[in-house]
Amino acid sequence: MLSSNPMAALFGKSPFKPLHQHMRIVIECVEEVQPLFQALIDDDQEQLEERKNAIFVKEREADSMRNEVCDRLPRSRLLAVDRQDLLELLAMQDAIADAAQDIAGLLVERKMEVHAGMAEPLMRLVCRCIDTCRQAQAIIERLQELQETGFRGREASGVDDLVVELGNMESDTDVMGMALARALFSQEDNLKPVSVMFWYQLIQWVGNLADYAEKVGDRVRLLVAR
């Protein structure tokens, strides 16, 4: 008899299917970050609260699925890759959603003012970090094909190229984040020290989206290498 449990059905096909599903939820969470910052720039408190709530809902959904995957990931049968490697990859995916939640929480809990000259570079950084997360998703979506080719050949080379590009994208976000921090510090004489501190923290958290996305790619590269 076929199982009526959707998670069981996913595992029956491939240990990677649940990771695909989890990453899609993570990306849905991250996609809310851009309109969140647009609401901040527009000083639209109602929209800011709405986007924050959407991020929190998706983050909880990602957490719930992560927990179910951890509970149901088979222990007794041979998997294509080591179970611990899959759990570590899942944790890196989940960290992306956690970073989005941290950002949303700070923007709602504390009144943040976007200072002159910061809006454009801030949105460029946010959008590039989201693109980096999408690149990580594209890599995760290739895991099934990697398994089918034994983690070798043209498919493995293609995934490696995606991981290299992911690293380049994350490097872009580092440069953009440092430029934004310099713009912030250039105005620090006109700002309250606590405001500078929170903005610096926020810039770091936005960069964490790309950092964790890169770590997802690094984990996949390790799977291929083994």
UniProtKB/TrEMBL annotation:
<dbReference type="Pfam" id="PF01865">
    <property type="entry name" value="PhoU_div"/>
</dbReference>
<dbReference type="InterPro" id="IPR038078">
    <property type="entry name" value="PhoU-like_sf"/>
</dbReference>
<protein>
    <submittedName>
        <fullName>TIGR00153 family protein</fullName>
    </submittedName>
</protein>
<dbReference type="InterPro" id="IPR002727">
    <property type="entry name" value="DUF47"/>
</dbReference>
<dbReference type="InterPro" id="IPR018445">
    <property type="entry name" value="Put_Phosphate_transp_reg"/>
</dbReference>
<comment type="similarity">
    <text>Belongs to the UPF0111 family.</text>
</comment>
